[in-house]
């Protein structure tokens, strides 16, 4: 798609009948947003839809949250919505999850963190480079290679376990963090390249051309022109990569073994259901403990989904 | 960018610090009595294993929290006396992960394998990886275990694995108080059991409750039902032929046994107390199905001794009639003298023949270990080791299970599905039994489908 | 060397993590520095520099295992004897396989459409509202719970207890039915509706993904376009139809494709909720079962290859979209 060549200046002005004083550009934008927000909220249909979806999406989680505070016997004999008539909240489930193991909970927590951060940073950087090459560098076989990379998404991780593990054992790095960083990075690449490439294609070619004419090299174009525009896309992929790695059990179990030196939170939580799968009630507490960090990450990355980055750069 | 980084660090640090503080608190409370008692361990019995200082033995099992704690506690005397270190790893994905590790040549030193059928296929698939048992282990096995148990760890005439724990599945749980209040007596023959069911049904209640939902293993409790009944209607010899596939899976005798199971599990007058109709057996979680007994919505449930771990904390396991009390009786045979016993257990298998591994293997097959394990477990564990001191067992159901296991009047047979090839024992047998209940598939159709799925070689 | 492999204290682990990231950044920096000579270096060298790490990683971690899978699908259960196409014949003639294939196709069509639609509508209606952050967090939350966790939540929702005195419903849906005067239902038992109830879980999870990516795309629509359209009098549904959707078309394709790929591979939900029983199994679940529970390597590999084949329509669709964007540019 292309940006229409409307004179930019006209659009910055807020229509006079809204009766606003324009002190500077920044204020005008905030106010435009306020107007837009008012417009949205005034549509009862939109608010109605938003509320219905939000409620439908929250109730099951709410049920789990309430359940995680209820004693085992009550979970099995009455529904969580009877909370008011069956009081008796308990922290026992959380206590068991956090302190029921001989290994300190904090160890798992640190492991998860150490596994996750590089496993998010590495694939994103690699994929940005590759996506840039696929989008902005002309070379033979570009589309074929891109389609091949993209199609690799379908390979189930399970078929890679034995070949990869055999190699890691040969290299003498099995059971270390390196295997996890490497594996997670590889598994993330097809989707990351695909996603970032499609967003990169979106950026008007004129911007890149203009920079090229000014004598900018690939690196400069990449960092100065593209990166700022891609922030929302990178932020959203970062969140999901973070989630997948944070919630991964299979890769961790296979490559790191369950040794407490490397094992992440999910390994501990999977153990909670008991040898014969008899204590699912603990999983509700476990699920909530492990959800806290992803939520913090989501909330802190939200500020990067700001409107107008692209528009701003067109003007600049 | 900078402010965000700082903020999330702060958040993470707070979270971590919180966890650390709490972990610190719990540590002081966790100082268990076992730790002090092991200081007094008499190391004389451990001399035979030699000095293993600085050596490590890795153990990989399907036993996870909280049972894993009891496992590792039971190794403490061995570790203190020999100086060896046991690196324990339990995982619920054990059965899928172990072959992966074997293929990648990163096998653990020792694994506890819960199915003889799995052991057999590992020996076939990885002949170099699985190590035969050393002499010390063979000696222990022949001395302390019955021939049947030794045979389950033997593949092609070679002993590979010795039993670790054991369980007994031929039990029916009930409420002693309900029995006492209504004047019911414990049935001693299958016919008496059916008469009792009818009496309860006539009184307007539904006697049995059952659940076979168990996530990916859904259906296994139903296979146990059929195995228990085959042992009773066709006898242990036919049972062995059936398990080893020398008679077809859908032999008329097995069809008859499945019909007998159906008299209970597919009889709307007998099931599924407090849980719904016949179909509801398929979706009722096996570990919650018994809740109807203390709650009063059903009276009988066939389940193993390890079901005791699933009762809510306010339920007492005891023979004496009391409120919220449950207990189990032996699932009777055709006659009072006919006493087949269905059970299961894990097998200690080694993938290394280093001396410290062999020493640990020997320790696990010795009565010293069995007694130590009984001591640290509290309740919910038994072994078929004849050197086990029964007075160390603490739960009445454990004591009864051990008595039945070691009583020569009872004919023990290992869980059949655990001995069959995985395509049947962890595949079609489970799914077809589930269909048998969920979609009312006929007895013959179910057994024929399983027969068809039996791997050719 | 040992320092790099065995980290057992928290400090050591964190240090190792920082070292890993720094090492990685240094290597990346070296590549960038080497190719950053605008006129002097031929294009193919630059392309190689940018693509090499990705291509090498993928070749080692995905292509090689993928080829190996195709190869072992031609061998027997232990991977020892060549059996030709026998595994494929077994897979296709298996009594249940028709159902499994039908379920898989049903999943792959329904989940991406439903999840994307809901995510898109939600992203649009909460965009630029005061409660946006909170509203988005609520729908994002299922995404943050692992698949297994989500399956457990929904198992609670669908739980069945008979409608009789002394027995309480513990599943919310059945409680609602009882309150409304209906009989409780066995949601997970009765085919084919049970597949639909499982799909609901996947949609519940993936809508958060769709919402997040699409919301980012919506926010990247230049203000100019939106303002211009507004000046032209476009509002509400029309704005959505003529401005929003066309502007985020590439993002929509990404989202639909990604969810479809994820759906093809998903087995945790089926595995946790029904174990593949009651006619709810999908190809990925059968693949997992054969490979890891039953340990029939050949048949497991054949099922994985069937998954590869199922993705071809998606690939073709994306290639066409790629051509389309090329033409527009």
UniProtKB/TrEMBL annotation, chain A:
Q: Where do the TM regions start and end?
A: 45-66, 108-137, 144-166, 178-200, 221-243, 279-301
Matches recorded under Gene3D superfamilies: MetI-like
Matching Pfam families, A to Z?
Answer: BPD_transp_1
Spell out the subcellular localization from the entry: Cell membrane
- Predominant cellular place of this UniProt entry's protein: membrane
Q: What domain of life does the UniProt record list for this protein's source?
A: Bacteria
Q: Which CDD domains match?
A: TM_PBP2
Domain ABC transmembrane type-1 intervals: 109-301
Q: Enumerate the UniProt keywords alphabetically.
A: Cell membrane, Membrane, Transmembrane, Transmembrane helix, Transport
> Which GO cellular component terms, listed alphabetically, does the Swiss-Prot or TrEMBL entry include?
plasma membrane
Which topology term describes how it sits in the membrane?
A: Multi-pass membrane protein
GO BP terms: namely:
transmembrane transport
Q: What protein family does this chain belong to?
A: Belongs to the binding-protein-dependent transport system permease family.
- By what name is this protein known? Carbohydrate ABC transporter membrane protein 2, CUT1 family
Organism for this UniProt entry: Sanguibacter gelidistatuariae
From TrEMBL, chain B:
- Tell me which positions the record assigns to the signal sequence: 1-19
What domain of life does the UniProt record list for this protein's source? Answer: Bacteria
Q: What protein name does the entry list?
A: Carbohydrate ABC transporter substrate-binding protein, CUT1 family
- Family, per entry: Belongs to the bacterial solute-binding protein 1 family.
- Write down the PANTHER family for this protein, in alphabetical order: ARABINOSE-BINDING PROTEIN-RELATED, OSMOPROTECTIVE COMPOUNDS-BINDING PROTEIN GGTB
Q: Which Gene3D superfamilies match?
A: Periplasmic binding protein-like II
- Write down the species: Sanguibacter gelidistatuariae
**Stored InterPro entries:** Bact_solute-bd_prot1
Lineage start: Bacteria, Bacillati, Actinomycetota, Actinomycetes, Micrococcales
Q: Which UniProt keywords apply?
A: Signal, Transport
From TrEMBL, chain C:
Q: Which GO terms describe its cellular component?
A: plasma membrane
Q: Which InterPro entries match?
A: ABC_transporter_permease (IPR051393), MetI-like (IPR000515), MetI-like_sf (IPR035906)
Keyword field contains Transmembrane: yes
Its subcellular locations are: Cell membrane
Membrane spanning residue stretches: 14-35, 44-64, 105-126, 138-157, 196-218, 239-264, 299-319
Principal location listed in the UniProt entry: membrane
Q: How does it sit in the membrane?
A: Multi-pass membrane protein
Q: Which GO terms describe its biological process?
A: transmembrane transport
What positions does the domain ABC transmembrane type-1 occupy? 101-318
> Which key words tag this protein in UniProt?
Cell membrane, Membrane, Transmembrane, Transmembrane helix, Transport
One Pfam family named in its UniProt record: BPD_transp_1
Q: Which domain of life is it from?
A: Bacteria
Protein family: Belongs to the binding-protein-dependent transport system permease family.
Q: Name the PANTHER family for this protein.
A: ABC TRANSPORTER PERMEASE PROTEIN, OSMOPROTECTIVE COMPOUNDS UPTAKE PERMEASE PROTEIN GGTC
What is the official name of this protein in its record?
Carbohydrate ABC transporter membrane protein 1, CUT1 family
Q: Which organism is it from?
A: Sanguibacter gelidistatuariae
């Amino acid at each position: 798609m292309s940006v229409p060549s409307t004179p930019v200046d006209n659009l910055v002005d807020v229509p006079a009948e809204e009766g606003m004083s324009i002190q500077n550009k920044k204020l005008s934008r905030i106010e435009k947003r306020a107007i837009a927000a008012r417009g949205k909220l005034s549509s009862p249909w939109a608010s109605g839809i938003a509320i219905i979806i939000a409620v439908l999406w929250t109730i099951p989680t709410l049920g789990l949250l309430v359940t995680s505070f209820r004693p085992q016997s009550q979970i099995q004999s009455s529904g969580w919505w009877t909370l008011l008539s069956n009081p008796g909240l308990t922290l026992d489930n959380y206590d068991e999850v956090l302190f029921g193991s001989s290994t300190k909970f904090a160890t798992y927590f640190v492991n998860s963190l150490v596994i996750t951060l590089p496993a998010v940073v590495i694939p994103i950087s690699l994929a940005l480079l590759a996506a840039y090459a696929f989008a902005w560098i002309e070379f033979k076989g570009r589309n074929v290679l891109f389609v091949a990379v993209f199609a690799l998404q379908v390979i189930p991780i399970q078929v890679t376990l034995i070949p990869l593990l055999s190699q890691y054992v040969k290299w003498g790095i099995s059971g270390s963090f390196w295997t996890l960083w490497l594996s997670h990075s590889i598994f993330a690449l097809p989707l990351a390249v695909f996603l970032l490439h499609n967003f990169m294609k979106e950026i008007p070619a004129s911007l890149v051309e203009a920079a090229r004419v000014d004598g900018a090299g690939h690196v400069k174009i990449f960092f100065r022109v593209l990166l700022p525009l891609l922030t929302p896309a990178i932020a959203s992929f970062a969140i999901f990569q973070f989630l997948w790695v944070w919630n991964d059990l299979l890769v961790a179990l296979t490559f790191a073994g369950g040794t407490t030196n490397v094992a992440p939170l999910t390994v501990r939580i999977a153990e909670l259901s008991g040898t014969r799968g008899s204590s699912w009630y603990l999983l509700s507490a476990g699920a909530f403990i492990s959800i806290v960090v992803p939520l913090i990450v989501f909330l802190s990355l939200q500020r990067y989904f700001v409107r107008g980055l692209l528009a701003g750069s067109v003007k600049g | 960018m900078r402010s965000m980084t700082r903020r999330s660090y702060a958040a993470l640090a707070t979270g971590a610090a919180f966890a650390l503080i709490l972990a610190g608190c719990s540590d002081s409370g966790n100082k268990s009595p076992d730790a002090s008692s092991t200081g007094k361990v008499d190391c004389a019995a451990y001399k035979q294993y030699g000095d293993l200082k600085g050596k490590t033995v890795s153990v990989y099992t399907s036993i996870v929290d909280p049972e894993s704690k009891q496992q590792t506690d039971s190794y403490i005397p061995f570790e203190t006396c020999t100086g060896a270190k046991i690196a324990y790893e339990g995982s619920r994905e054990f059965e899928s992960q172990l072959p992966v590790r074997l293929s990648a040549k990163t096998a653990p030193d020792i694994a506890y394998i819960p199915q003889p059928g799995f052991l057999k296929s590992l020996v076939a698939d990885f002949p170099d990886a699985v190590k035969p048992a050393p002499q010390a282990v063979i000696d222990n096995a022949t001395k302390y275990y019955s021939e049947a148990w030794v045979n389950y760890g033997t593949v092609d005439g070679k002993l590979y694995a010795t039993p670790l724990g054991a369980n007994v599945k031929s039990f029916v749980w009930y409420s002693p108080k309900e029995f006492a209040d209504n004047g019911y007596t414990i049935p001693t023959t299958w016919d008496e059991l059916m008469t009792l069911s009818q009496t309860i049904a006539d009184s307007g209640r539904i006697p049995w409750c059952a659940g076979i939902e168990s996530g990916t293993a859904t259906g296994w409790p139903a296979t146990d039902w059929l195995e228990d009944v085959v042992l009773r209607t066709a006898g242990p010899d036919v049972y062995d032929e059936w398990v080893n596939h020398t008679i077809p899976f859908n032999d008329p005798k097995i069809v008859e046994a499945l019909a007998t199971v159906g008299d209970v599990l597919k009889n709307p007058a007998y099931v599924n107390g407090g849980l719904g109709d016949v179909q509801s057996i398929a979706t009722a979680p096996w570990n919650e199905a018994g809740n109807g007994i203390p709650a009063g919505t059903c009276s009988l449930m066939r389940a193993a001794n390890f079901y005791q771990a699933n009762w809510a904390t306010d339920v007492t396991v005891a023979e004496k009639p009391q409120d919220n009390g449950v207990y189990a009786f032996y699932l009777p045979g055709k006659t009072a003298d006919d006493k087949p016993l269905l059970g299961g257990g894990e097998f200690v298998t080694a993938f290394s023949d280093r001396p410290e591994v062999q020493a640990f293997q020997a320790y696990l097959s010795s009565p010293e270990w069995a007694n130590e394990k009984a001591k640290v477990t509290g309740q919910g564990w038994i072994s078929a080791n004849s050197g086990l001191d029964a007075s160390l067992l603490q739960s009445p159901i454990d004591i009864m299970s051990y008595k039945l296991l070691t009583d020569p009047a009872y004919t023990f047979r290992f869980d059949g599905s655990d001995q069959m090839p995985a395509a049947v024992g962890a595949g079609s047998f489970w799914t077809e039994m589930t269909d048998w209940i969920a979609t009312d598939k006929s007895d013959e159709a179910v057994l024929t489908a399983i027969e068809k799925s039996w791997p050719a070689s | 060397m040992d320092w790099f492999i065995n980290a057992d204290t928290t400090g050591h682990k964190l240090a190792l993590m920082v070292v890993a990231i720094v090492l990685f950044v240094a290597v990346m920096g070296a590549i960038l520095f080497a190719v950053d000579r605008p006129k002097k270096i031929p294009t193919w060298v630059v392309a190689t520099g940018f693509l090499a790490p990705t291509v090498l990683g993928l070749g080692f971690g995905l292509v090689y295992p993928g080829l190996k899978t195709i190869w072992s699908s031609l061998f027997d259960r232990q991977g020892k004897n060549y059996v030709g196409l026998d595994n494929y014949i077994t897979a296709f003639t298996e009594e249940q396989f028709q159902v499994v294939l039908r379920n898989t196709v049903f999943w792959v069509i329904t989940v991406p459409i439903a999840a994307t639609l809901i995510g898109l509508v939600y992203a649009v209606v909460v965009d630029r509202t005061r409660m946006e952050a909170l509203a988005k967090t609520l729908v994002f939350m299922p995404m943050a719970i692992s698949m297994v966790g989500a399956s457990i939540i929904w198992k609670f929702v669908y739980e069945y207890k008979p409608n009789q005195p002394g027995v309480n419903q513990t599943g919310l849906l059945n409680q609602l039915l009882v309150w409304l005067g209906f009989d409780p239902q066995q949601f997970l038992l009765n085919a084919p509706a049970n597949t639909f109830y499982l799909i609901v879980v996947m949609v519940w999870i993936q809508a958060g993904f769709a919402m997040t990516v699409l919301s980012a795309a919506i926010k990247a629509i230049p203000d100019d376009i939106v303002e211009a359209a507004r000046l032209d009098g476009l509002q509400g549904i029309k704005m959505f139809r003529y401005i929003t959707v066309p502007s985020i078309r590439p993002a929509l394709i990404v989202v639909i494709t990604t969810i479809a790929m994820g759906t093809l591979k998903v087995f945790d939900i089926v595995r946790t909720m029904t174990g593949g029983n009651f006619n709810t199994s999908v190809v990925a679940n059968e693949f997992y079962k054969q490979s890891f529970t039953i340990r029939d390597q050949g048949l497991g590999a054949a099922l994985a290859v069937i998954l590869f084949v199922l993705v071809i329509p998606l690939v073709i669709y994306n290639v066409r979209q790629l051509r389309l964007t090329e033409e527009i540019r």
